[in-house]
Amino acid sequence: MRPPNANLQFVHRKSLPTRSRARSRRRQQRFPCSTLQCFAMAYATAACVYGTNLAAKPVSARRAAGPAARRPMVAVVRCVSTRQETAGLVVEQFNLKEYMEEKARKVNEALDLAVPLRHPEVIHRSMRHSLLAGGKRVRPLLAIASCELVGGDEKAAMPVACASEMIHTMSLIHDDLPCMDNDDLRRGQPTNHVLFGEDTAVLAGDALLSFAFEHVATSTFGVAPERVVRSIVELGNCVGSEGLVAGQIVDISCEGKVVDKDVLEYIHIHKTARLLEAAAVCGAIVGGGDEEEVARVRSYARCVGLLFQVVDDILDVTKTSEELGKTAGKDLASDKTTYPKLLGLDGARDFAQTLVRKAEGELAVFDAARAAPLYHLARYIAYRQN
């Protein structure tokens, strides 16, 4: 995805006081760049040379890496864009990879404990096959990060985080069935119905869906009962006939037809974005967020959820099955309308940029340190390669 046009100023703590204004102006003229271009270049340099933490490398290592590495560009990144959605936002150094790995590990442990292998064994093996198959755990991460954003504790958000992943896994199992997308590969592994049969796969999805609500109701502690009920209602709405199912049925009815952007957006807001939105909103609810905070989290997550689908559509036509871990080009083969098909590849990328900027704008009123995971998660989704 091409980055949006907004300016970033990279501040070198030691060199800035002595750099002349004329030299600065000349450099800006010679090297004009946008917000995400500057950030991406600095971040990529840091990641390639050091990982994401430049300060962790000793001086000898920085010297060995060459002159470019001796002055860490990502020490401070200060946004000077005039756009409202990013104005005043200060991005401190943040290791998203480490954050995601830590949270995903905890989520995986919680999921493993929540759905143990027990009688009847075949259904639980089927459930666990898809639930514990890996994946980015974006929905649980959104729930936990949103809970922490409003001052809540990770433990309070873990049940809704796990529930969102159970619902998501159900949707994948059912999506892959021969009567739906008829897919044989998911997360680099055979799909559930390939291993266990269609009948067991349907039941495994049903079991995960029903257990998601039970898990929130019975495993959430230290949260006001009315907030637990609100989170259950939010999850129920996101998956029903006004949520995921609505997006699915409209998507099926539009196969082979030409649809406009409004219809396509309706499909993906309900089919994909709504569950991502619900995960984040549930996290903010159980974390103690007020109405304004929950509303901002909802708006942020809806942008990120739609962004997730736009990027999915782009990757579907630009990556191989091996790179994606699932069958590439299946939307094109089934003649579905996608964002690249409707807007063109460049148009889809431009739309993704707009969604990133809108998502970032909703975070501007929150504490910068607490907002950092969500800020970087939006960019991770925008620039992911699988």
TrEMBL record:
One term under GO cellular component: cytoplasm
Please provide the record's keywords in A-Z order. Isoprene biosynthesis, Magnesium, Metal-binding, Transferase
What biological process terms from GO does the record include? Answer: isoprenoid biosynthetic process
The keyword Membrane is assigned to this record: no
Q: Does the keyword Repressor apply?
A: no
Q: Which GO terms describe its molecular function?
A: metal ion binding; prenyltransferase activity
Q: Where is the signal peptide?
A: none
Look up the record and name the pathway of this protein: Isoprenoid biosynthesis
Cofactor needs: Mg(2+)
CDD domains from the UniProt entry: Trans_IPPS_HT (cd00685)
Q: Which family does it belong to?
A: Belongs to the FPP/GGPP synthase family.
NCBIfam families xrefs: FPPsyn
- Protein name (record): Geranylgeranyl diphosphate synthase
Q: Which organism is it from?
A: Zingiber officinale (Ginger)
Native organism taxonomy: Eukaryota, Viridiplantae, Streptophyta, Embryophyta, Tracheophyta
